[in-house]
Amino acid sequence: MRRNGYLIVLLVVMTLLPMWYVGLHGEPPSEEIAIDQSVSELRPLDGFLDTPNKLSPSQVGVIVWVALLALVAVLSAAHRFMNRAVRPEEPAAAGGTATDDTAVADGGRADARSDGGTVGFPWLSTEERWVVEYHDASGAIEGLVAMGGLTVLAIVFAALFTGEYLTLARTQYFGLYAAGMFLSLAGSTVAYYAWFMPHIEVAERRDH
Fold first, then answer.
1. In what ranges is there compositional bias, type Low complexity (predicted)?
2. How far apart are alpha carbons 58 and 71 in whole angstroms?
3. Does residue 109 lie in a domain region?
4. How many other CB atoms are found less than 10 A from the CB of residue 26?
5. Structural domain that includes position 68
6. Residue 101 lies in a domain
């Protein structure tokens, strides 16, 4: 991690500590209100983690901030992965010599132009905008494995979520299964973008 990363983590900790201190002095815990088991088999209060029965507004605020910061970290990690992990070491510059087999983003083939054989994107390149770098999709077997595994995980979590809804309806398990399902779907999207979509860098001339 770079020095800037450590500074960001330090600022986040310095912000959350006083908020958490205030949150600890919230409302006292309240009693659980359970469902009469002689009437219904639902057990929404059952779970694998002990949680308070009631949260104060300050505690809710701390939890929301932590969740938002965690989401930013996950999105940043996914973005870095998509842009760096599966790209080739030596980028294929768009200004290089093109042949008849040069692939373009729309699935066709690029033709060498009279200005030195630049790979052309007629629907993207203009007088004020041009392609700087083009990385063709790798289509590696790792991408198929990742997408297949994540798809299976999404189906499993969806089945568990449905089963929980039809049986005990435990709140914590609802959250766990829903999070697993949506994260699996998001991961499959990231994998598809990383392995099966070309990466294009475009420069544009702007008047300021």
1. 92-107
2. 20
3. no
4. 16
5. 1-41+54-86
6. no
